[in-house]
Specification:
Layout (H helix, E strand, L loop, with lengths): L1 H22 L12 E5 L4 E4 L7 E7 L5 H15 L5 E10 L6 H11 L9 E5 L2 H6 L9 E5 L5 E6 L4 H15 L2
Parallel strand pairs: 3-4, 4-5
Antiparallel strand pairs: 1-2, 1-5, 3-6, 6-7
């Protein structure tokens, strides 16, 4: 009896994991952005992409603190160009392992001190499992930031990574202008 229960359990586990692996695919242009829940540094709990619906949005995902210089190469020009536009949204998302959830308050307070208060609404911290996001975002190097342009419905229009290159930043900027009609 126990042997048959074990076999059934193993089979169920195999099929469940196999089904999960098939739905956990690399994101491509046109895909809806996956759900990420977190808290803005302004203390508001949000869910991406729902928070971005109705806005043209740029999301920058970072897995390591050391990527901040790369993030800034995207953030500064985009916020200068579109920061005041009502149809544009920018969110930086530090992705932090659930292991650090117990000290999330300390980490978030440290970020709040290092970021100007006007940008607190643009930084959402995520604490949780990371493996599925590594697959979604096709993370080849955790020391790179990952950039996504979303349309008003939360679908991916552009994907980039690492430090902003002049050509890629121009492409992104022009695409945003086209989408928001400016």
């Amino acid at each position: 009896m126990r042997k048959s229960q074990l076999i059934i359990f193993v089979c169920c586990l195999f099929f469940a994991l196999n089904g999960y692996a098939q739905t956990n695919k690399k994101l491509t242009i046109g895909d809806p952005f996956p759900t990420i829940k977190g808290k803005l540094l302004s203390s508001k709990k949000i869910s991406i992409p729902d928070h971005c619906k109705g806005k043209v949005s740029v999301l920058i995902i970072a897995f390591k603190r050391e990527t901040q210089a790369q993030v800034n190469t995207w953030t500064q020009p985009l916020m200068k160009e579109f920061g005041m536009h009502k149809d544009f949204r920018f969110i930086e998302i530090p992705m932090i392992s659930s292991f650090f959830n117990w000290m999330s308050g300390y980490i978030d307070n440290g970020m709040r001190k290092g970021i100007v208060p006007s940008m607190h609404k643009n930084v959402m911290t995520y604490y949780g499992p990371l493996n599925s996001y590594y697959k979604y975002f096709d993370v080849s190097d955790k020391k790179l930031c990952y950039v996504f342009l979303l349309d008003r419905n939360g679908n991916i229009l552009l994907i980039d990574k690492g430090k902003a290159q002049e050509r890629n930043l121009l492409l992104l900027t022009n695409k945003i202008k086209e989408l928001i009609g400016s």
